[in-house]
Write a structure and sequence with these properties.
This protein has about 100 residues and is α/β, with parallel strands linked by helices. It has one domain: Rossmann fold. It contains three helices and four strands. The chain has a four-stranded parallel beta sheet, sandwiched between helices. Helix 1 links the parallel strand 1 and strand 2. Helix 1 runs parallel beside helix 2. The protein is globular and about 35 Å long. The model has no long low-confidence stretch (mean pLDDT about 90). Keywords: Glycoprotein, Glycosyltransferase, Membrane, Transferase. It comes from Kaistella solincola. It is a single-pass type II membrane protein. It is found in: Membrane.
Length: about 100
């Protein structure tokens, strides 16, 4: 059984590409929702979507972080891996790189 990684992304799509590289295809399936209002470099999205374990990239919702549509995006993404039945664990993350402040 695999791990399903549910990712919401807003900006810094190179970070998304780097993040996807961290999950080996043998153990992880990746499901991505990109904020509908985000401006996306299509070259990076093509690079990400070409990975064997990236099962889908969706752009269904306009998201305000922590808002209802953020939850709706994760619920939408979670339905996809539930259907294929090969995922035993679900992990919810964002692709945004956070910096700690002191």
């Amino acid at each position: 059984m695999k791990h399903a990684i549910l990712i919401t992304a807003y900006k810094d799509f190179q970070q998304l590409a780097n993040l996807v590289e961290e999950f080996p295809a043998d153990d992880y399936n990746i499901y991505i929702h990109i904020d509908k209002k985000s401006k996306v470099d299509e070259n990076i999205i093509s690079k990400v979507s070409s990975k064997e374990n990236v099962k889908c990239i969706e752009r269904k919702y306009v998201i305000n972080w922590g808002g209802l549509n953020h939850l709706n995006a994760f619920l939408h993404l979670s339905r996809i891996p539930l259907k294929d039945g090969e995922n035993a664990y679900f992990h919810v993350i964002t692709a945004q790189k956070h910096q700690l402040y002191k």
